[in-house]
Every structure is written in structure tokens, then in C-alpha cells.
Design brief:
Blueprint (H helix, E strand, L loop, with lengths): L1 H6 L10 H17 L20 H8 L3 H9 L14
Helix pairs in contact: 2-3
């Protein structure tokens, strides 16, 4: 709890499985390839995807203990994300 209070985040190793992270990285690569930034673009480039249409990108919250751990840290009812259930 001290680390969270000081830094605003906590790293919890191996909560999200490596294969799941690889799937997310592949999906991000697909999104960028389908809508790349202009060639002359420098700096950040954003893609705004509908969360409900992106189960692979939701998976680190919905298919792992991450959301439940966040609720344990912040307190039940204090962590909210559209379309994400904490009881999975």
C-alpha cells in the first residue's frame, strides 16, 4: 500500500500471462497497420477503438485477476471500467 500511495501504481509481476500480452501486442500492431499515422507525423498517434469491439485489448482486465486486485487496493466499488466485470 505504501508503494501505491507514494508512486500512484504498483507493479505485480506475472499477473497477466505472457501469451496474453503477446496477443495484445499483435492486436495493437494490426490496428496501427490498418490505420498508420501519416508519414510526416512526429510524436503521439492515437487510435480510439470501441472497447466492446476489442475483447483482445480488454483481456488483461477481464481474463486476469488485475481488476479484482485493483479493487482490493482501492476498495470495492471504487474501480470502474465500462464493460469490465470484477467477478471474473
Amino acid at each position: 500500500m505504501h508503494e501505491f500511495a507514494e508512486q500512484g501504481f504498483v507493479l505485480v509481476p506475472q499477473v497477466v500471462q505472457e501469451d496474453l500480452l503477446e496477443q495484445v501486442a499483435r492486436r495493437i500492431d494490426e490496428v496501427v497497420a490498418a490505420d498508420p499515422p501519416p508519414a510526416d507525423k512526429r510524436g503521439p498517434h492515437f487510435s480510439f477503438l470501441r472497447t466492446k469491439d476489442e475483447p483482445t485489448l480488454r483481456a488483461p482486465l477481464t481474463r486476469t485477476p488485475v481488476f479484482g486486485l485493483a479493487e482490493e487496493l482501492a476498495g470495492a466499488g471504487h474501480v470502474h471500467a465500462a464493460g469490465v466485470r470484477s467477478d471474473v
